[in-house]
Design brief:
42% strand; rod-shaped; Elongation Factor Tu (Ef-tu), domain 3; OB fold (Dihydrolipoamide Acetyltransferase, E2P); six-stranded antiparallel β-barrel; single chain; four-stranded antiparallel sheet; Probable Co/Zn/Cd efflux system membrane fusion protein
């Protein structure tokens, strides 16, 4: 019987993780519209548009000359009230009947009122300053120095960029598999060659009535500020443990009705092997749930001329490094030994073919 020329591939092992693929949008973890509590002319800006600030930094200052004058006036009134009370108390030590108890109590109340007024004036003075409530980056200022800024009018927004969050939604069927702390990776168009990692920190406790889906948030470190709120992102959320599968090229798989099979090379003969398929994998590979072991020689070209027991000539084999996602650490020592043996056997066959 004439031998059939074929090309083979060594079966490999691939550790696949169940994932959810969605499109999400980046959000700032904290943002604030910064306003003054008082209305007055803008005296100074300590930062420029887009600057980064730290918590407690003075961002802007209103003209507080009137407020300072009121504070000084209140301070003087407080000092006068305390002085008057002090003189009366000193006099009462010498002449106990010189003033009624009611008059003394009224003086004490005047001091208390003066203290409250001074405290209020001092607090009011802080209303003329804009202080950063957290670390972040400023947007553009809405007013220039010298212009009047009314109370409660937004002067600038402060955005916290590290960390950031990505918001997306998942289907109801996936909710039972989603858990807090699961790892998330995402990619954005601005950095197509980069992958960013984070963790799920929020799963909505209810289903959105309009979409029928459940909202999920994941937090990501963003120390270099490359991720900007508002960006759209392709999100992958891991929802299950890694599952080890044997994988082969999709082109190696044949169909006989509903049954799927591959051709194996045993010695110098072809063997038809039924298999049960799993999920498709990137780069043209498919997972095999059962029917194959690591290190098997599977025919990937020439199988249309094969039949059971037909002798074959192996003309070439694909190297086992074709699939970059392979995880050799998941292979047992026996599987590695078998695979090395298959490789050596293939190389010997190829050398014989060349000699022929």
């Amino acid at each position: 019987m004439e031998s059939v020329p074929v090309t083979v591939e060594i079966t490999q092992q691939f550790a696949a993780t169940m994932t959810i693929e969605e499109v999400g949008k980046l959000k700032a973890t904290d943002s604030a519209a910064l306003t003054f509590s008082a209305g007055e002319k803008l005296k100074s800006l300590q930062f420029k548009d887009g600057d980064t600030v730290k918590k407690g930094d003075l961002i802007a200052q209103l003209d507080d000359s009137k407020a300072k004058a009121e504070l000084e006036k209140s301070s003087s009134s407080l000092a006068l009230a305390k002085s008057k009370l002090s003189r009366v108390l000193a006099l009462l030590k010498k002449q106990p009947d010189s003033m009624s108890a009611q008059d003394v109590e009224e003086l004490k109340q005047q001091v208390a009122l003066a203290e409250a007024d001074y405290s209020q004036r001092k607090t009011d003075l802080q209303s003329y300053q804009l202080i950063a409530p957290f670390d972040g980056q400023l947007t553009s200022f809405s007013h220039s120095v010298g212009s009047r800024v009314e109370a409660a009018v937004v002067l600038v927004h402060l955005i916290k960029l590290d960390p950031v969050e990505v918001h997306y939604s998942i289907s109801q069927s996936e909710v039972g598999k989603a858990e807090l702390g699961q790892s998330v990776t995402l990619k954005v168009d601005a950095y197509s060659d980069s992958t960013f990692s984070g963790r799920v920190d929020y799963i909505a406790p209810l289903v959105d009535e309009s979409s029928g889906r459940v909202e999920v948030h994941a937090k990501l470190d963003n120390a270099d500020n490359r991720l900007v709120p508002g960006m759209f992102a392709k999100v992958s959320q891991d929802i299950g443990e890694s599952i080890n599968h044997v994988v082969v090229s999709q082109t190696a798989v044949g169909a006989d009705g509903k049954q799927r099979f591959v051709w194996l090379i045993r010695g110098d003969k072809a063997v038809k092997q039924p298999i049960e398929l799993g999920e498709n994998i990137n780069n043209g590979y498919v997972a095999v749930k059962s029917g194959l072991s690591v290190g098997e020689r599977v025919v990937i070209t020439g199988q249309q001329n094969l039949d059971i027991g037909v002798p074959v000539i192996v003309q070439g084999s694909k190297p086992s490094i074709t699939l970059p996602a392979l995880r050799d650490e998941n292979k047992t020592a026996e599987e590695k030994r078998v695979e090395e043996s298959r490789k050596s056997e293939n190389q010997s066959v190829e050398v014989d073919n060349e000699a022929t």
